[in-house]
Write a sequence for this structure.
């Protein structure tokens, strides 16, 4: 990693803070407070002792199920988005923020079709970070790739650089948002592996919980660095792959059954 990138990462390790001890309520128009499950928010710097990631088993991803998408939207306030008056459905579908989307991919050799939840892949070498002119796109020491909305200038270079089409640009004024997921017009955003949960000591993500609740258990979240953890054991037991492994990005999200 270059000296500049180390400085960017170091300066933002404590960027995502967590408000503790607050009750659900409204403090200003469109701003909703939510009480966090944990009473012990992060008080120390993020370190590289862990690297958060996922294994998604496409064989367990049920056709027609959108539980992970719905849960992500509710967890991060994306369900609060409203189509501007007079805007067409097709244009709104292109512009509405989507942190997870389900896609179907076909193996050119076998013809096998897989259904995959696709989100930010939290690369070890993220192209979005490389091209960002302000340092707004950055990778935390624990492997989570984020966008600092305070320094994002909306140039969208990161969106062009991302090979997974995993980022969204906020075109309209955000009238309603959650305090745990601040959002604003003119900024880029994407899946953050429920970073507010990470910083309050919780052990899962909204999408993984929702998938398990549906009985599919297609999404397994955990620490890629823990050899005794369930994620590492599952990766050792199941053949898995990275999407666009040819790019050598060493993604934090892996897929099996593809």
């Amino acid at each position: 990693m270059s000296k500049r990138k180390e400085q960017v990462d170091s300066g933002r390790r404590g960027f995502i803070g967590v408000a503790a001890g607050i009750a659900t309520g409204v403090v200003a128009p469109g701003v909703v407070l939510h009480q966090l499950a944990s009473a012990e928010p992060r008080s120390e710097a993020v370190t590289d002792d862990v690297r958060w990631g996922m294994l998604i088993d496409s064989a367990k991803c049920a056709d027609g199920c959108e539980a992970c998408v719905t849960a992500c939207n509710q967890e991060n306030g994306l369900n609060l988005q409203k189509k501007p008056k007079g805007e067409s459905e097709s244009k709104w579908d292109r512009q509405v923020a989507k942190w997870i989307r389900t896609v179907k991919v076909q193996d050119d050799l076998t013809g096998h079709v897989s259904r995959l939840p696709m989100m930010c892949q939290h690369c070890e070498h993220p192209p979005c970070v490389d091209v960002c002119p302000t340092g707004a796109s950055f990778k935390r020491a624990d492997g989570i790739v984020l966008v600092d909305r305070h320094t994002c200038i909306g140039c969208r270079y990161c969106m062009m650089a991302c090979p997974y089409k995993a980022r969204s640009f906020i075109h309209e004024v955000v009238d309603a948002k959650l305090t745990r997921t601040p959002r604003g017009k003119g900024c880029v955003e994407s899946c953050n592996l429920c970073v507010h949960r990470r910083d309050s000591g919780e052990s899962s993500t909204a999408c993984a919980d929702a998938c398990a609740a549906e009985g599919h258990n297609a999404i397994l979240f955990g620490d890629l660095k823990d050899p005794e953890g369930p994620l590492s054991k599952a990766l050792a037991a199941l053949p898995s792959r990275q999407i666009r492994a040819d790019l050598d990005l060493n993604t934090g999200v892996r897929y099996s059954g593809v």
In short: Residues 3-8, 10-39 have pLDDT under 50 and may be disordered.
